[in-house]
Records
---
Amino acid sequence: MPFRTELYIGMRHLRSRRKPAFVSLTTWISVLGIALGVATLIVVVGVMTGFERELRSRILGTQSHVVVVEPGAAGMEAWRSVLARVKGHRGVAAASPFVFGQALLSSRGRVVGSVVRGIDPALETAVTDIRGYVEPAAIGRLAQGGAPASTTPQVLLGSELAASLQVGTGDEVSVVSPAGVVTPMGVLPRSKAFKVAGVFRSGFYQYDAGLAFITLREAQNFFNLGSGVTGVHARVGDIFQAERIARELQRELTSRYWARSWQQMNRNLFSALKTEKTTMTILLLLVIVVAAFNIVGSLVMVVMEKGREIAILKSMGATRGGILRIFFLQGAFIGVGGALVGTLGGLVLGWNLHYVEDFLEKVFGLDILPPSIYHIDRLPIHMTAQDVSLTALMAVLVCLGATLYPAWRASRVDPVEMLRYG
């Protein structure tokens, strides 16, 4: 039997007006179920990818791509030579030294623990995106406040940290080191007054609530590092090559230094996001599998209804393979049609997701993304051609697998028994 004839017969079965209403309804439910499953999966995967991209951009806004430290040492004394070697490495765009320490910040009777990072403002803006999170004048005030002639050094505070301390630009805060100073009276905490040069908002709560910037010189003095630093961090041209560059730097430097990429430093976070994305994909794929079972039921009922027609086709010379292809094509049409409708629906919904978000917030009074927590006013969504095509392909493969049993059962119909008793 020619393929065109098999395709024609399969389509005639789908369009047949003599088919019982229940069978036709089951077919449309199958198409709708597959379409909804595919559309939902495309949107959810797009949102998960968008969250990952947004989180990565915010983390890398205040964190460098590669960090070189000297573990086990109080400070890196030979940091200038390390800085020169890191800057000269192929693929590194910029590098700068930094000091990292923990301290307590107090103001107006409030005390909050924080990470204090000492930076060189002239070099730091080329390594991180801190300039984009604070007014430009604040960077200038920070640099001027760290000059030797200045009496009061300056500090940049995260927005949540400043809110916890109830301070703003121009206010004064006390920074207390838990290490302390040894005196005849015992160990006393080291404390110093700083003036707030500005407030930055990175959009990442962990940084906004627990990070403060001071100048490199002030950090060296405050943490008693002398001329040493905690380490050297760098910005690379391609963030996805950071791990390779970190390995190369590790080989070039002596074993006393460690080089780590942003992937290694945030491995747990991004592994959790990847696991969540995979889990959601598997769960939503089950929706498509359930819809595919409707295809099985629909085609089985079609085989029962078309038993006499199958017997007549076989008596006219149709082979088992021909009958199998007829019903396989019929199920494939349902699956491909549902996947196509679902793909188009998912793309349209994804491109207009902010309208849906506005509607839900307005009608039901929901606050889907509280700005005070996420600092994102819209659901981030990023639909890639790879994710969309892979989702549609998985749906089609599941549906094709669901058509195998009904098609095989149709090919096994005995024409003699069916024409005698059918």
Note: The radius of gyration is 33 Å.
---
Amino acid sequence: MKFQGEQKDQAESVSEIGSKFVLALIGMYILMAIPLKSYIQPAIIMSVIPFGLIGSIIGHVIMQYNLSIMSMCGTIALAGVVVNDSLVLVDYVNREIAKGHDLVKAAWEAGAARFRPILLTSMTTFAGLTPMLMETDLQARFLIPMAVSLSFGILFATGITLILIPCVYLMLHDIGAILKRAVT
């Protein structure tokens, strides 16, 4: 059996979006690894991306929309947005460590100091997308799945980011210390 016509075009589009998304993720990793001078910290930052995807899927279930190519476009945009929140936290931890603070205190301070800006940024983004989510005009309805992906993905990933990033940072530091002791 061979798909033709619209189904063939859609399969090609999905395949192309997937491969370009992988290239975008690699590009984001490289762009963060250079200034952070670390191979691990970009992975910590990007660990939130799957949670954005989960939030996007939950949003589609809540809003009763099927996943579409526009949903995928929204999810790709979402990856860049949730990475920003994580980057803010990791950068704050790095600056606190550079000042001579203990890692645990730096991670705690990062969560406390950046909680409000991260939460406000996410809530204002969701509020900005709300009119599109509520749109009833037939001409604009094809954009709603993209808005659903972005808005619900941001909400879900923000909550996870504020907890996950400091925890992963501390866990990887502990794992590094254990490995260092095992080697010596």
Note: DSSP finds six helices and no strands in the chain.
---
Amino acid sequence: MLKNELLEALDKTPEILKEMLGSIPSEILKERRVEGKWSIHEHACHIPHIQPMVTDRIRRLIEEDNPKFAPYLPGTTTPEDELIKMDMQKTLGRFTKTRREFIELCKSMPDDVWHKNGEHSNFTDYNPYILVRHLLFHDHTHMYRIEELWLAKSL
């Protein structure tokens, strides 16, 4: 199990994200380069915005027996303009703290809790280990999209 490596990688996301965003011209942050797809701003806000939800899911997996989780679908289970209306600097400003709290919570989990089952309507298996790994892939997917929207000559 690579839990320590996953947590170390997750701890770096806020710094990597902020450094990358600092290189992007502010005038293109809210530009939607692909019709119907998110802007850089929306991707950048989404990553820290979901952190409290993920932390709550870990807490529930620790405290409850087989908790059930509904999907979070931005624009479907939340207002479509929720992310574009966010203050990106404030959202990012809280991210390091909320991510570190999540990591500390995960580090405090006994080994047997890492594979404690929960149910998610979109996934066949769901436990803290899968959720932590999924969060890392989620972060990197959105950071890749940010870089692609920023640097690609055409999309």
Note: The first strand starts at residue 68 and ends at 69.
